[in-house]
Amino acid sequence: MGGAIDVESTVGAGSTFSVEVTLPVAAEHDITDDSQDLAGVRIVLADRDDTMRPLFARYLAHCGTDVVTADDLSSVPALCQGAVAENRPFAVAVLGSCWPLERQIDVAEDLRKLSGSPGVVALTHDRFAGRRSAIEGLRYVDAAPMRRAPFLRAVAVATGRLGPEADDDTTPARHERGKAPSARWPRRPRERAFRSKGRQPNERILRYRQVAAPHRHQPRPRAAGRRGGDYRRRPAGGALVL
Predict the structure, then answer these.
(1) pTM above 0.85, yes or no
(2) 66 sits in which H/E element
(3) CA–CA distance, 203 with 232 (Å, rounded to integer)
(4) Which residues share a beta bridge with 45?
(5) Which helix (H) or strand (E) is 92 found in, with range?
(6) Which DSSP state fits 143?
């Protein structure tokens, strides 16, 4: 395969291993191009995560955008206002998921008050639709998990390069989904399916493999003097002692 393996190690600090290898692209694959035509679009990207911020910036730069990054969410309105004063307004403001949804919405409302306000794309882990306020120009992208195609598509919709109907996730599944377990008795022995308490039968199934000692499957000896659930003491003569 060629390539190279490198290691950097420091006593008391740890080791870093890196592998570099060049692999050919398969002739047959189901990978589709998820890039968007965003050439010449100015975007301000706010994210305080030092790992995700440059990654998102590379996604956007690959599509031809001019990206300005920031690590402070509250600085976004001032950056947008300064860009308008320089006659170089931002078309989109991307708000990272490291801030609560409420703060993202507050910033989006502040941006709507500016002249030449940009579109806003908020990356959020909050999937509850009731907390996603409907603000003109604000689009939400699920960040758990974060996927590049919906992110770039939302940015393209915010710039007007795509219509709002394109914001729906139509990315085809790359792997065939398996069949969910049912509540029927499983084919394998000693494995039982249990319905999760308080849920619908097919909504969640808890499975486990029962491993038990042999004596657990043997009937327990009934205690002397106990018959049919009668737990009162019986003397040898047979009369009940109350």
Answers:
(1) no
(2) strand 66-70
(3) 46
(4) 69, 94
(5) strand 92-95
(6) B
Q: Assess contact for 166 and 157: CB atoms under 8 A.
A: yes
Residue 29 vs residues 25, 59, 93, 174, 203: alpha-carbon distances, Å = 9, 22, 34, 10, 33
User: Alpha-carbon distance 56 to 49, whole Å?
Assistant: 11
Contact 154, 121 (CB under 8 A): yes
Sign of CA pseudo-dihedral 26, 32, 34, 36:
positive
Tokens 């049912």, residue located: 182
Q: Cα separations (Å) of 40 from 60, 66, 159, 166, 230?
A: 11, 7, 11, 21, 87
In tens digits, what is the pLDDT along the chain, a chain of 242 residues?
788 999 999 999 999 999 999 888 788 877 777 788 899 999 999 999 998 999 999 999 999 999 999 999 999 999 999 999 999 999 999 999 999 999 999 999 999 988 888 999 999 998 888 888 888 889 999 988 888 999 999 999 999 888 877 665 544 444 455 566 555 544 554 444 444 444 444 444 444 444 444 445 555 555 555 555 555 555 555 554 44
Q: Could you tell me which residues come within 8 angstroms of residue 91 by beta carbon, excluding any fewer than 6 positions away?
A: 41, 42, 43, 118, 119, 158, 159
What CA–CA distance (Å, rounded) separates 46 from 133? Answer: 20
List domains and CATH numbers for the chain: 36-167 (3.40.50.2300)
44: helix, coil or strand? strand
C-beta of residue 19 within 8 angstroms of C-beta of residue 42: no
